[in-house]
Structures are given as structure tokens and as C-alpha cells.
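Minutes, project check-in

Agenda point 3 was the complex the collaborators sent over. CS summarized: two entities, 639 residues total, and the question is how they sit relative to each other. Sequences were read into the notes so everyone works from the same version.
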Amino acid sequence: MNQAPLIPGFVTRAAAATPAGIASRMRGLSDSAIAWLFITPTMLLLLAINLFPLLWTIQLSFTNYRANRPNAPVRGVGLDHYEAILTDPDIWLRMQATAHFVFWTILLQTVIGFALAYLIDRKFRGHGFWTTLILIPMMLSPAVVGNFWTFLYQPQIGLFNYVVAFFSGIEPSSFQMLGDVDLSPWAIIIVDTWMWTPYVMLICLAGLRSIPDYIYEAAEVDRASNWRQFVSITLPMCLPFIMLAVLFRGIENFKMFDLVNLLTAGGPGSTTEFASITLKRAAFEAWRTGYSSAFAVIMFVMIFGLANIYVKALNQVKAR
Amino acid sequence: MSATAHSVVQPSTGAKLAASVVVVLYALVALVPLVWIGLTSIKTPQDSIAYPPKVVPFVDFTPSIEGFCSLFTTRSRQTPEYIASLPPPQGACEEVARSRSMVVVGSSNYVPRFVNSLIIAFGSTALSIVLGTATAYAFSRFRVPLKDDLLFFILSTRMMPPIAVAIPIFLMYRELGLSDTRLGMILLYTSVNVSLAVWLLKGFIDEIPREYEEAAMIDGYTRLQAFRMVVLPQATTGIVATAIFCLIFSWNEYAFAVLLTSGAAQTAPPFIPIIIGEGGQDWPAVAAGTALFLLPILVFTVLLRKHLLRGITFGAVRK
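CS then shared the predicted structure for the full assembly.
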């Protein structure tokens, strides 16, 4: 180092490596000024639109504030909302419904997504073209496409019922995907799987492509069977990628709102009322702002736990 | 390392054929809902709810522009006597309306909602890219205090459920006069997108050798000039890929849009589901609105598939 940093910790490698004579010819802003200038606006925006609202939510969660009565007196209620939520059997039913949805969507998307990736990795003619077609559903607006699925699910006129009836012989008007308490969670699981299997497929495909050929060549020399190669090479080498996909879909589906709000809006009854729908009803229909803020904080804590696992898994994958 | 034709791991012809059959079948089934959107948009309301479904245009049903007319216009029902008293219909949509004992009274809100989607999506994408590129460059090149913590904070903002942050943002926007404004939505979507932009772009900028800038600075450029003349052109591919991702997110977003906008700044995703005809959803109109809304992303996906693949895997697979 032949040049003292302007501000400790802010010297750049380039400046450090530059001889003093050339450094004196550098004009304009110093590196530390540029670093501040480039980072500050982003951080301010994120603080204003993420951190500040989060702190405000935490503060509101201890009060009985109602957003539709801004002038009513606000009273602190301590941990009452948290106690009410955590001891409410209905909330646990909502969480179970959410968990049921997350479990089945992850299972289906992982199995189908991995199978598709495995087949596409055979590199048959035109695999690039068909991969692009398969990707299309995940690129589209979940709300707009989800809304159209309510048409496909109509019992008398919908294409879905017609196709199921065609192949199974069941009377098409005898089942309602969106109106039946047992079927409606599956109506959402089907649409979510349709939309997001391609996403899991892509990550698995990246995983498969990261396995070097020489490992398979060595296995061939050892006369390992295809099944043996799959179980002891393909699956373990791909596992970090599958985990990544599972965690990412898990976080996304835990906070799922768009598809479910348009397909069932939580109904029939409250069979598909996932956590985010409960939150929306409490916050924007019942206007129990304090209570819903407490619920939001509880969801934050759960998501943040998942996010931590996600980043740890990401680092594990990178460490390999 | 890719398999060569002589590699022992090259799948057999039979395996390839079997794989292609399964993948093609999956793709064809997965595309049925999208084809159905297209077909429904050119049906009359009667044909759209026919049972068994009408599939082949010109054979099973006559294509109609009624869905698009219902999407773009508002109509009012009139008595046959009144309609008979009117001068001959001007334009195709007026003609369709008359055949249903209605007259066109004005244009619908679809075009303004679509324009809002365009302005908000492109506005927030541009802002995310400017902020994201600058921040990513600073994180990539300078020693910033608490760099890893700041980068994790930036990523963690993406994990927050929109519904949970929506409550205080709703209150804050009400105070600031940003509720139901395009500016408010642009800032909101930028804050969501910028985290992804920083992470993606940092990956791309990390790959540009520092020596290029150092050489430029030795030639007498300032750091900012080197950034503009050397780094930005090298990062163009990455910037384009990131921009597409930001665009897709803000184009498709629904949760914030439905909770924070109601009129002036409403985008198409909350609007399309509330297109109601006489006696319930007007499915051809909904399908027409959906098809038009999906079209830009469909074109993007096909044109830019190679960039998309790289962005989706999000650097996690970079070796």
C-alpha cells in the first residue's frame, strides 16, 4: 500500500495498486464518494419501503389502531394480539391449510420438475424449443391466468371438468373444483403446480448440467448399472439444487396470495384460507389493523426463519 | 464440459425418443389453458360456454370480435324501437352491440389500466436498473463496511410477504398522498426489484476483469468515466437480462396492486378479473383482456429465452 486510504476501509484495490504518480492524475470524485453515492439511494429506498414499514408494523401490533378510523383514540394493548393469535384454534387450522398446500405443491413440483429436467437432459432433437414452451406458464401473471382458471374449473361449462369427465366417465357437473371443500385446495394445488413446475425444472436442469461427464465415464468403466448411476451419482450431485428449489418454492407458497385470492378467495367456507388470505381479511376487510399487524409480524418471523435456511443452503451449494 | 458424440454417457437413440415423447406431451398439455384463452377470446358468449366445448375455429364455431368489443367498450341496453330509430351502425363494435339490442356508449377502462401497467412496469424497471447497477458496481468494486450484512439485508427484503408490508405502506402512502398514484407504485415495485437487480448485476459485474478499468484509469480516465466507458458496455447483457426480470415482475404483480390501487393507478392484473358482463363474467372479454395482457411477456420469453435461463438460476449455479 503506497497510498493512505481517504476514509479507513474505503480504499479500493485499484487505488491501492496504483503508483502515487498515477494516483495524483486521477481526477473527479474519490472512490469512497462514489461508493456512498452509488449505494445510498438504494439503501434509502429499501429503508423507506421495507425497514420503516416493518418497524411501524411491529409498533402497530401492540395497539388497537384501526386504519378505517384514523381519528379514534389509540390504546396500547401489549401482547394481547399475539396471545389471541397464537391461542386461536382457527389460526392453527389456517396454518394447517397453508402447510397442506405448501407440502403438496412442493412434492408435485419437485417430482415432475426433476423428471422433466432429467428427460430434457437427454438432449433429444428440439429440446431447446420444447423447454421454452414449458417455461411459458411461469412467465405469466399468476393473477390474470389464475382468474382464467376459474373459467376452466366451471362445473357445467369448464374445459377441466369436460376433460376429466371425458377420461374418467364421471358426470362433469357432479364435481365442483372451486365449490367443494375437499376439492378446492386441490384446484389451487393444480394451478400452482402448472405454473411453477417449470421453475423447479430449470433449477434441476442447472444441477444436472453441473455434473461433469467424467464421473459417469468412470461409472461406465466400473460397469455400474443405469439405476446405480442415477442413485449414487445423479441424485446426490443434484440434491443441493433440488433443496434450493424446494426452499424457494416453500417461501413463495407460504406467502401465496394471488392465485388463491382469485381462484377461491379462501372459500368455500375457509377451507383454502391460507395465512396470507387471513391476513388480508383481517387488515383490509375487518380493518383490525393492530391485530393484523401482529399476524404480519408472526408471518415475518416464520418467513425470516425460512429465508435464513435458504441463504445457508445457498452458501452450502456454493461451497461445493 | 459437454458430452461429445463419442462420449460413453451419450444417451441411446431409444432413450432420446422416449424422453422427447414425454416432454412434448407435457408441453402440449401445459399449453392447453393458454390455447383456450386464445380460442375463448374469439368466441361469442354463447359459444364460450357451449357444452361440449367448441374447439376448432371455422369448424365448430365462427370467430367473433365480440370479446374484444366488450373489452374495449361500455354498452347500454336499449329497446328495439329505439335501436331501429338510430342511423346505420358506425364501426364493427357498434354493429355487434346492435345485434345484442345494445348501443356503444363509451370506451372501457381497459386501455387506461393497460397504460398504467406499461408506465409502472417500465418506470420501475428503469429505476431498478439505474439504482441496481450503481449499487452492484459499488459492492463489486469497493470495500464497503458491513458489505455482507448489507447484501443480506437487500436480499431479505425480497422475502417479505407483500400482504404483510402492505398495511404500513397503505398507511404511509395515505399520509404522503402516494396512494393510488403511479409514482407510488413505481417506487414500491422498484424497492422489490432492486434487491434482485443488485444480486444479479453484482454477479455480472464481478465477472468483468478489474484490469479493464485500471487500464482506463492509467490512461487518464476518472473512475466514473471508466465505469461509464468500460464497465457499462461490458455489462450490457447482464443489464438486459436483469431488466427483463424486473419487467416481468412488475408487469405480473397483483397483491400490492389490488390492495393499494383502486382507480387512477390501477394496473391490469386487478382489473381483468372484474370485467363483468350482463349476468356474470363476460368470458370472451376476460379472455381477450388476458390474451392482450399476456402477449408482451410471451414474446419476451420466446425472444430472450437464453438470458432468462441464466437469470432464473440466479447465480446459484454459476460454477
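Noted in discussion: Residues 17 and 290 of chain A are 56 Å apart (CA to CA).
Follow-up: revisit at the next meeting once the mutant set is ready.
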